[in-house]
Amino acid sequence: MDTRRFFLEQKDMPIRWYNVQADLPEPLPPMLHPMTKEPLTPPDLAPLFPMELIMQEVSQERYIDIPEAIQEIYATWRPTVLHRAYNLEKALDTPAKIFYKYEGTSQAGSHKPNTAVAQAYYNKKEGIKRLTTETGAGQWGSSLAFGCTLFDLELKVYMVKVSYNQKPYRRLMMETWGATCVPSPSPDTKAGRDMLAQDPDCPGSLGLAISEAVEDCMMRDDTHYSLGSVVSHVLLHQTVIGQEAMKQMEMAGYYPDIIVGCVGGGSNFAGMFLPFVKDKLEGNKPDLRIINVEPESCPTLTKGLYAYDYGDVAGMAPIAKMFTLGHTFMPPPVHAGGLRYHGMAPLVCHLHKLGYVEAVAVPQIATFEAGVQFARTEGIISAPETNHAIRVTIDEALKCKETGESKVILLAHSGHGHFDMAAYEQYLSGKLVDYAYPEEKVKEALATLPQIPGQ
Ligand SMILES: *Cc1c(COP(=O)(O)O)cnc(C)c1O
Q1: What are the Cα distances from residue 149, in Å, to 124, 137, 155, 356?
Q2: Could you report the per-residue pLDDT of 255-274, keeping only the tens digit for each?
Q3: What is the pTM of this model?
Protein backbone atom coordinates (compact mmCIF):
# COMPACT_ATOMS: atom_id res chain seq x y z
CA MET A 1 0.00 0.00 0.00
CA ASP A 2 1.30 3.48 -0.84
CA THR A 3 2.02 5.81 2.07
CA ARG A 4 -0.82 8.26 2.44
CA ARG A 5 0.31 10.20 5.49
CA PHE A 6 3.74 11.37 6.55
CA PHE A 7 4.18 11.67 10.31
CA LEU A 8 6.86 13.37 12.31
CA GLU A 9 7.45 12.62 15.96
CA GLN A 10 7.47 15.16 18.75
CA LYS A 11 11.28 15.04 18.80
CA ASP A 12 11.30 16.14 15.13
CA MET A 13 9.38 19.34 15.88
CA PRO A 14 11.25 22.52 14.88
CA ILE A 15 12.98 24.12 17.87
CA ARG A 16 13.64 27.42 16.02
CA TRP A 17 11.56 29.72 13.86
CA TYR A 18 13.03 30.70 10.48
CA ASN A 19 13.43 34.44 9.90
CA VAL A 20 13.59 35.16 6.15
CA GLN A 21 14.76 38.73 6.84
CA ALA A 22 18.30 37.33 7.23
CA ASP A 23 18.22 36.09 3.63
CA LEU A 24 16.45 38.88 1.72
CA PRO A 25 18.39 40.30 -1.24
CA GLU A 26 17.05 43.76 -0.32
CA PRO A 27 15.88 44.70 3.18
CA LEU A 28 12.20 45.05 3.96
CA PRO A 29 11.09 48.72 3.70
CA PRO A 30 10.65 50.03 7.27
CA MET A 31 7.20 50.54 8.78
CA LEU A 32 6.30 54.19 9.44
CA HIS A 33 4.69 55.94 12.39
CA PRO A 34 1.04 56.80 11.55
CA MET A 35 1.40 60.41 12.83
CA THR A 36 4.99 61.45 12.14
CA LYS A 37 5.43 59.19 9.07
CA GLU A 38 9.00 58.61 10.24
CA PRO A 39 10.39 55.05 10.45
CA LEU A 40 8.98 53.24 13.48
CA THR A 41 11.32 52.61 16.40
CA PRO A 42 10.88 49.82 18.96
CA PRO A 43 9.67 52.28 21.68
CA ASP A 44 6.86 53.41 19.30
CA LEU A 45 5.49 49.88 19.37
CA ALA A 46 5.92 49.31 23.11
CA PRO A 47 2.33 50.39 23.99
CA LEU A 48 1.05 47.65 21.65
CA PHE A 49 3.39 44.66 21.89
CA PRO A 50 5.83 43.05 24.35
CA MET A 51 9.47 43.94 23.65
CA GLU A 52 10.44 40.39 22.67
CA LEU A 53 7.87 40.40 19.84
CA ILE A 54 8.99 43.90 18.76
CA MET A 55 12.58 42.67 18.54
CA GLN A 56 11.43 39.64 16.53
CA GLU A 57 9.61 42.00 14.17
CA VAL A 58 12.87 43.69 13.14
CA SER A 59 15.34 40.87 13.85
CA GLN A 60 17.92 40.02 11.19
CA GLU A 61 18.87 36.72 12.88
CA ARG A 62 18.25 33.74 10.60
CA TYR A 63 16.86 31.52 13.38
CA ILE A 64 15.09 32.41 16.61
CA ASP A 65 14.82 29.78 19.37
CA ILE A 66 11.31 28.67 20.29
CA PRO A 67 11.02 28.90 24.11
CA GLU A 68 10.45 25.53 25.75
CA ALA A 69 7.10 26.61 27.27
CA ILE A 70 5.83 27.26 23.72
CA GLN A 71 7.26 24.00 22.40
CA GLU A 72 5.41 22.15 25.18
CA ILE A 73 2.10 23.61 24.02
CA TYR A 74 2.90 23.14 20.32
CA ALA A 75 3.44 19.48 21.14
CA THR A 76 -0.24 19.12 22.11
CA TRP A 77 -1.11 19.17 18.37
CA ARG A 78 2.15 19.45 16.42
CA PRO A 79 3.75 18.17 14.28
CA THR A 80 0.78 18.20 11.92
CA VAL A 81 0.41 15.51 9.27
CA LEU A 82 1.33 15.74 5.58
CA HIS A 83 -1.13 13.87 3.36
CA ARG A 84 -0.84 12.56 -0.17
CA ALA A 85 -4.16 13.30 -1.92
CA TYR A 86 -4.41 10.04 -3.87
CA ASN A 87 -8.21 10.15 -4.02
CA LEU A 88 -8.26 13.67 -5.41
CA GLU A 89 -5.54 12.81 -7.93
CA LYS A 90 -7.61 9.82 -9.08
CA ALA A 91 -10.82 11.83 -9.35
CA LEU A 92 -9.01 14.46 -11.44
CA ASP A 93 -7.30 11.74 -13.49
CA THR A 94 -4.11 13.77 -13.28
CA PRO A 95 -0.47 12.65 -13.36
CA ALA A 96 0.26 15.42 -10.81
CA LYS A 97 1.25 14.36 -7.30
CA ILE A 98 -0.72 16.36 -4.77
CA PHE A 99 0.34 16.71 -1.13
CA TYR A 100 -1.36 18.74 1.56
CA LYS A 101 -0.25 19.77 5.02
CA TYR A 102 -3.30 19.97 7.24
CA GLU A 103 -3.34 22.61 10.00
CA GLY A 104 -6.97 21.90 10.95
CA THR A 105 -6.04 19.51 13.77
CA SER A 106 -5.09 22.30 16.19
CA GLN A 107 -7.50 22.89 19.07
CA ALA A 108 -8.97 25.93 17.27
CA GLY A 109 -9.07 24.21 13.87
CA SER A 110 -6.51 26.23 11.91
CA HIS A 111 -2.87 27.34 11.73
CA LYS A 112 -3.57 30.40 13.91
CA PRO A 113 -2.68 28.88 17.32
CA ASN A 114 0.95 28.65 16.09
CA THR A 115 1.28 32.38 16.74
CA ALA A 116 -1.53 32.81 19.31
CA VAL A 117 0.29 30.62 21.81
CA ALA A 118 3.60 32.41 21.21
CA GLN A 119 2.04 35.86 21.59
CA ALA A 120 0.17 34.96 24.77
CA TYR A 121 3.44 33.57 26.20
CA TYR A 122 5.51 36.72 25.53
CA ASN A 123 2.78 39.04 26.83
CA LYS A 124 2.39 37.02 30.02
CA LYS A 125 6.16 37.04 30.48
CA GLU A 126 6.14 40.86 30.32
CA GLY A 127 3.45 41.11 33.03
CA ILE A 128 0.53 42.03 30.77
CA LYS A 129 -2.95 41.14 32.14
CA ARG A 130 -5.23 41.67 29.15
CA LEU A 131 -5.11 41.54 25.33
CA THR A 132 -7.36 43.06 22.66
CA THR A 133 -7.65 41.90 19.10
CA GLU A 134 -9.83 41.87 16.00
CA THR A 135 -11.14 38.83 14.18
CA GLY A 136 -12.67 38.24 10.74
CA ALA A 137 -14.24 34.81 10.43
CA GLY A 138 -13.57 34.20 14.13
CA GLN A 139 -10.63 31.87 13.54
CA TRP A 140 -8.14 34.31 15.00
CA GLY A 141 -10.34 35.36 17.95
CA SER A 142 -10.92 31.74 18.90
CA SER A 143 -7.23 30.87 18.47
CA LEU A 144 -6.10 33.74 20.66
CA ALA A 145 -8.79 32.87 23.21
CA PHE A 146 -7.22 29.39 23.32
CA GLY A 147 -3.73 30.88 23.78
CA CYS A 148 -4.91 33.35 26.44
CA THR A 149 -6.68 30.73 28.52
CA LEU A 150 -3.48 28.64 28.67
CA PHE A 151 -1.54 31.64 30.00
CA ASP A 152 -4.36 33.06 32.14
CA LEU A 153 -4.79 36.36 30.23
CA GLU A 154 -8.04 38.30 29.76
CA LEU A 155 -9.05 38.87 26.12
CA LYS A 156 -11.48 41.22 24.34
CA VAL A 157 -12.20 40.43 20.69
CA TYR A 158 -13.71 42.85 18.14
CA MET A 159 -15.33 40.59 15.55
CA VAL A 160 -16.26 41.87 12.04
CA LYS A 161 -20.05 42.21 12.22
CA VAL A 162 -20.90 40.24 9.08
CA SER A 163 -19.01 37.23 10.48
CA TYR A 164 -20.36 37.76 14.01
CA ASN A 165 -23.82 37.24 12.56
CA GLN A 166 -22.85 34.42 10.15
CA LYS A 167 -20.71 32.50 12.65
CA PRO A 168 -22.15 32.43 16.18
CA TYR A 169 -20.25 29.24 17.07
CA ARG A 170 -16.87 30.91 16.74
CA ARG A 171 -18.01 33.51 19.27
CA LEU A 172 -19.14 30.73 21.58
CA MET A 173 -15.73 29.05 21.28
CA MET A 174 -14.13 32.34 22.37
CA GLU A 175 -16.53 32.60 25.30
CA THR A 176 -15.95 28.95 26.24
CA TRP A 177 -12.23 29.72 26.43
CA GLY A 178 -13.09 32.73 28.62
CA ALA A 179 -12.83 35.68 26.20
CA THR A 180 -15.29 38.56 25.59
CA CYS A 181 -16.43 39.08 21.98
CA VAL A 182 -18.34 42.09 20.51
CA PRO A 183 -19.44 42.84 16.92
CA SER A 184 -17.42 45.55 15.10
CA PRO A 185 -18.29 48.37 14.50
CA SER A 186 -19.12 48.48 18.24
CA PRO A 187 -20.23 51.36 20.48
CA ASP A 188 -17.27 50.60 22.79
CA THR A 189 -14.71 52.73 20.90
CA LYS A 190 -14.64 56.08 19.10
CA ALA A 191 -13.67 54.41 15.80
CA GLY A 192 -16.72 52.14 16.12
CA ARG A 193 -19.11 54.92 17.16
CA ASP A 194 -17.97 57.14 14.26
CA MET A 195 -18.61 54.35 11.76
CA LEU A 196 -22.02 53.51 13.25
CA ALA A 197 -23.03 57.19 13.01
CA GLN A 198 -22.00 57.20 9.34
CA ASP A 199 -23.55 53.84 8.45
CA PRO A 200 -25.56 51.94 11.09
CA ASP A 201 -25.67 48.86 8.79
CA CYS A 202 -21.92 48.79 8.15
CA PRO A 203 -20.92 45.10 7.77
CA GLY A 204 -17.52 45.91 9.25
CA SER A 205 -14.09 44.98 7.98
CA LEU A 206 -10.86 43.70 9.44
CA GLY A 207 -9.31 47.16 9.02
CA LEU A 208 -12.04 48.77 11.13
CA ALA A 209 -11.94 46.06 13.79
CA ILE A 210 -8.17 46.65 14.06
CA SER A 211 -8.84 50.35 14.72
CA GLU A 212 -11.20 49.42 17.55
CA ALA A 213 -8.85 46.88 19.15
CA VAL A 214 -5.86 49.28 18.95
CA GLU A 215 -7.90 52.15 20.44
CA ASP A 216 -9.06 49.92 23.32
CA CYS A 217 -5.46 48.82 23.98
CA MET A 218 -4.21 52.43 24.07
CA MET A 219 -6.75 53.30 26.79
CA ARG A 220 -5.33 50.85 29.36
CA ASP A 221 -1.84 50.27 30.79
CA ASP A 222 -2.40 46.59 31.61
CA THR A 223 -3.47 45.83 28.02
CA HIS A 224 -1.60 44.94 24.86
CA TYR A 225 -2.85 44.38 21.35
CA SER A 226 -2.37 41.24 19.32
CA LEU A 227 -2.44 40.64 15.57
CA GLY A 228 -3.21 37.31 13.94
CA SER A 229 -1.54 37.98 10.59
CA VAL A 230 0.29 40.52 8.41
CA VAL A 231 3.18 41.51 10.70
CA SER A 232 6.56 39.81 10.42
CA HIS A 233 6.63 38.20 13.88
CA VAL A 234 3.38 36.38 13.09
CA LEU A 235 4.82 35.01 9.84
CA LEU A 236 7.93 34.01 11.78
CA HIS A 237 5.88 31.91 14.25
CA GLN A 238 4.09 30.18 11.39
CA THR A 239 7.34 28.89 9.89
CA VAL A 240 6.97 25.73 11.96
CA ILE A 241 4.56 24.65 9.18
CA GLY A 242 7.06 24.90 6.34
CA GLN A 243 9.96 23.47 8.35
CA GLU A 244 7.90 20.38 9.17
CA ALA A 245 6.64 20.13 5.59
CA MET A 246 10.20 20.16 4.25
CA LYS A 247 11.12 17.14 6.36
CA GLN A 248 7.89 15.39 5.41
CA MET A 249 8.36 16.01 1.68
CA GLU A 250 11.82 14.52 2.10
CA MET A 251 10.24 11.44 3.71
CA ALA A 252 7.91 11.26 0.72
CA GLY A 253 10.91 11.51 -1.60
CA TYR A 254 9.85 14.65 -3.46
CA TYR A 255 10.58 18.36 -3.61
CA PRO A 256 7.56 20.46 -4.68
CA ASP A 257 7.36 22.07 -8.14
CA ILE A 258 4.44 24.23 -7.02
CA ILE A 259 3.37 25.38 -3.55
CA VAL A 260 -0.16 26.79 -3.25
CA GLY A 261 -1.86 28.59 -0.38
CA CYS A 262 -4.58 31.12 0.36
CA VAL A 263 -3.68 34.61 1.57
CA GLY A 264 -5.68 37.01 3.70
CA GLY A 265 -2.91 38.73 5.60
CA GLY A 266 -0.48 36.11 4.35
CA SER A 267 0.52 34.24 7.52
CA ASN A 268 -0.43 30.60 6.96
CA PHE A 269 0.95 30.49 3.45
CA ALA A 270 4.11 32.41 4.32
CA GLY A 271 4.57 29.98 7.22
CA MET A 272 4.57 27.22 4.64
CA PHE A 273 6.57 28.84 1.85
CA LEU A 274 9.24 30.87 3.69
CA PRO A 275 11.47 27.86 4.51
CA PHE A 276 11.14 26.85 0.83
CA VAL A 277 11.69 30.37 -0.53
CA LYS A 278 15.05 30.25 1.27
CA ASP A 279 16.11 27.63 -1.31
CA LYS A 280 15.00 30.00 -4.07
CA LEU A 281 16.75 33.00 -2.54
CA GLU A 282 19.94 30.91 -2.40
CA GLY A 283 19.55 30.15 -6.10
CA ASN A 284 18.97 26.43 -5.56
CA LYS A 285 15.39 26.05 -6.77
CA PRO A 286 14.89 28.69 -9.47
CA ASP A 287 11.89 26.87 -10.97
CA LEU A 288 9.89 26.45 -7.76
CA ARG A 289 6.55 28.22 -8.19
CA ILE A 290 4.89 29.71 -5.11
CA ILE A 291 1.28 30.73 -5.77
CA ASN A 292 -0.64 33.04 -3.42
CA VAL A 293 -4.41 32.71 -3.90
CA GLU A 294 -6.82 35.52 -3.03
CA PRO A 295 -10.53 36.28 -3.64
CA GLU A 296 -11.48 38.09 -6.84
CA SER A 297 -13.54 40.48 -4.67
CA CYS A 298 -10.51 41.46 -2.54
CA PRO A 299 -7.56 41.08 -4.96
CA THR A 300 -4.78 42.73 -3.00
CA LEU A 301 -1.72 41.23 -4.71
CA THR A 302 -3.19 40.99 -8.22
CA LYS A 303 -4.91 44.40 -8.44
CA GLY A 304 -3.56 46.46 -5.53
CA LEU A 305 -0.95 49.19 -5.59
CA TYR A 306 2.49 48.61 -3.99
CA ALA A 307 2.53 51.63 -1.72
CA TYR A 308 2.76 52.82 1.87
CA ASP A 309 -0.65 52.51 3.51
CA TYR A 310 -2.22 52.31 6.96
CA GLY A 311 -2.87 48.89 8.42
CA ASP A 312 -6.35 49.92 9.59
CA VAL A 313 -9.35 52.01 8.48
CA ALA A 314 -8.97 54.83 11.02
CA GLY A 315 -5.27 55.45 10.21
CA MET A 316 -4.08 54.67 13.76
CA ALA A 317 -2.07 51.54 13.01
CA PRO A 318 1.46 51.70 11.62
CA ILE A 319 1.97 52.49 7.92
CA ALA A 320 3.54 49.67 5.93
CA LYS A 321 4.80 49.28 2.37
CA MET A 322 2.50 46.67 0.89
CA PHE A 323 0.17 45.83 -1.92
CA THR A 324 -3.04 47.56 -0.88
CA LEU A 325 -6.55 48.25 -2.11
CA GLY A 326 -6.65 51.36 0.12
CA HIS A 327 -7.18 51.28 3.89
CA THR A 328 -10.75 52.59 3.57
CA PHE A 329 -11.75 49.78 1.18
CA MET A 330 -14.67 47.68 2.48
CA PRO A 331 -14.55 44.28 0.74
CA PRO A 332 -17.81 42.56 -0.24
CA PRO A 333 -19.09 40.12 2.43
CA VAL A 334 -17.64 36.88 1.00
CA HIS A 335 -17.69 33.84 3.29
CA ALA A 336 -13.90 33.68 3.44
CA GLY A 337 -13.91 36.35 6.16
CA GLY A 338 -10.21 35.73 6.82
CA LEU A 339 -9.36 36.91 3.30
CA ARG A 340 -11.20 40.25 3.54
CA TYR A 341 -8.26 42.57 4.23
CA HIS A 342 -7.20 45.60 2.18
CA GLY A 343 -3.48 44.95 2.61
CA MET A 344 -1.06 42.04 2.84
CA ALA A 345 1.97 41.03 4.92
CA PRO A 346 4.85 43.34 3.93
CA LEU A 347 7.18 40.32 3.72
CA VAL A 348 4.88 38.57 1.22
CA CYS A 349 4.52 41.81 -0.77
CA HIS A 350 8.28 42.37 -0.82
CA LEU A 351 8.90 38.84 -2.12
CA HIS A 352 6.14 39.32 -4.70
CA LYS A 353 7.61 42.63 -5.83
CA LEU A 354 11.04 40.98 -6.15
CA GLY A 355 9.51 38.20 -8.26
CA TYR A 356 9.98 35.24 -5.89
CA VAL A 357 6.25 34.49 -5.47
CA GLU A 358 3.22 34.88 -7.75
CA ALA A 359 -0.47 35.55 -7.14
CA VAL A 360 -3.85 34.64 -8.62
CA ALA A 361 -7.41 35.74 -7.76
CA VAL A 362 -10.41 33.38 -7.88
CA PRO A 363 -14.21 33.87 -7.70
CA GLN A 364 -16.18 32.60 -4.69
CA ILE A 365 -18.43 29.96 -6.29
CA ALA A 366 -15.49 28.22 -7.97
CA THR A 367 -13.75 27.96 -4.59
CA PHE A 368 -16.71 26.13 -3.05
CA GLU A 369 -16.94 23.87 -6.07
CA ALA A 370 -13.31 22.90 -5.39
CA GLY A 371 -13.92 22.58 -1.64
CA VAL A 372 -16.83 20.19 -2.22
CA GLN A 373 -14.74 18.11 -4.62
CA PHE A 374 -12.00 17.95 -1.97
CA ALA A 375 -14.55 16.93 0.69
CA ARG A 376 -15.94 14.19 -1.56
CA THR A 377 -12.49 12.75 -2.29
CA GLU A 378 -10.18 13.51 0.64
CA GLY A 379 -13.01 13.76 3.18
CA ILE A 380 -11.97 17.00 4.86
CA ILE A 381 -14.51 19.83 4.85
CA SER A 382 -12.28 22.85 4.47
CA ALA A 383 -12.55 26.47 5.58
CA PRO A 384 -13.86 28.82 2.85
CA GLU A 385 -10.43 30.49 2.92
CA THR A 386 -8.66 27.19 2.26
CA ASN A 387 -11.07 26.45 -0.61
CA HIS A 388 -9.33 29.25 -2.52
CA ALA A 389 -6.05 27.32 -2.38
CA ILE A 390 -7.80 24.04 -3.23
CA ARG A 391 -9.30 25.70 -6.34
CA VAL A 392 -5.86 26.60 -7.69
CA THR A 393 -4.36 23.24 -6.65
CA ILE A 394 -7.03 21.51 -8.73
CA ASP A 395 -6.53 23.94 -11.63
CA GLU A 396 -2.78 23.27 -11.65
CA ALA A 397 -3.37 19.50 -11.45
CA LEU A 398 -5.76 19.74 -14.40
CA LYS A 399 -3.13 21.63 -16.38
CA CYS A 400 -0.78 18.69 -15.71
CA LYS A 401 -3.43 16.39 -17.11
CA GLU A 402 -3.40 18.40 -20.35
CA THR A 403 0.37 18.52 -20.65
CA GLY A 404 1.03 15.06 -19.24
CA GLU A 405 3.47 16.44 -16.66
CA SER A 406 3.55 14.80 -13.23
CA LYS A 407 4.35 17.91 -11.21
CA VAL A 408 4.51 17.78 -7.43
CA ILE A 409 2.03 20.18 -5.88
CA LEU A 410 2.11 21.05 -2.18
CA LEU A 411 -1.06 22.60 -0.80
CA ALA A 412 -0.98 24.58 2.45
CA HIS A 413 -4.27 23.47 4.01
CA SER A 414 -4.99 26.13 6.62
CA GLY A 415 -8.02 24.71 8.44
CA HIS A 416 -11.37 22.96 8.61
CA GLY A 417 -14.74 24.50 7.84
CA HIS A 418 -16.88 22.90 10.55
CA PHE A 419 -18.21 26.27 11.63
CA ASP A 420 -18.80 27.42 8.06
CA MET A 421 -21.59 25.03 7.15
CA ALA A 422 -24.00 27.94 6.55
CA ALA A 423 -21.75 28.96 3.65
CA TYR A 424 -21.76 25.39 2.33
CA GLU A 425 -25.55 25.37 2.63
CA GLN A 426 -25.72 28.47 0.43
CA TYR A 427 -23.45 26.85 -2.13
CA LEU A 428 -25.30 23.51 -2.10
CA SER A 429 -28.68 25.21 -2.49
CA GLY A 430 -27.43 27.36 -5.39
CA LYS A 431 -27.74 30.63 -3.46
CA LEU A 432 -24.06 31.51 -3.27
CA VAL A 433 -23.10 34.52 -5.42
CA ASP A 434 -19.92 35.86 -6.99
CA TYR A 435 -18.86 39.43 -6.38
CA ALA A 436 -17.12 41.14 -9.27
CA TYR A 437 -13.96 43.09 -8.61
CA PRO A 438 -15.26 46.38 -7.12
CA GLU A 439 -13.04 48.58 -9.29
CA GLU A 440 -14.71 51.91 -8.48
CA LYS A 441 -14.57 51.35 -4.73
CA VAL A 442 -10.90 50.45 -4.93
CA LYS A 443 -10.19 53.58 -6.97
CA GLU A 444 -11.91 55.68 -4.28
CA ALA A 445 -10.02 53.94 -1.49
CA LEU A 446 -6.66 54.30 -3.23
CA ALA A 447 -7.21 58.06 -3.32
CA THR A 448 -6.91 58.04 0.50
CA LEU A 449 -3.36 56.64 0.73
CA PRO A 450 -1.19 58.59 3.18
CA GLN A 451 1.11 61.19 1.64
CA ILE A 452 4.64 59.89 2.10
CA PRO A 453 7.62 61.89 0.84
CA GLY A 454 9.20 60.04 -2.07
CA GLN A 455 6.17 57.82 -2.73
C1 LIG B 1 -7.32 33.35 9.03
C2 LIG B 1 -7.30 32.27 8.07
C3 LIG B 1 -6.72 32.44 6.80
C4 LIG B 1 -6.16 33.75 6.31
O5 LIG B 1 -5.16 34.31 7.08
P6 LIG B 1 -3.64 34.29 6.66
O7 LIG B 1 -2.95 35.15 7.63
O8 LIG B 1 -3.54 34.78 5.25
O9 LIG B 1 -3.20 32.87 6.77
C10 LIG B 1 -6.70 31.35 5.96
N11 LIG B 1 -7.23 30.17 6.31
C12 LIG B 1 -7.80 29.97 7.52
C13 LIG B 1 -8.39 28.65 7.84
C14 LIG B 1 -7.85 31.01 8.43
O15 LIG B 1 -8.40 30.82 9.62
Answers
A1: 11, 20, 9, 39
A2: 999 999 999 999 999 999 99
A3: 0.96
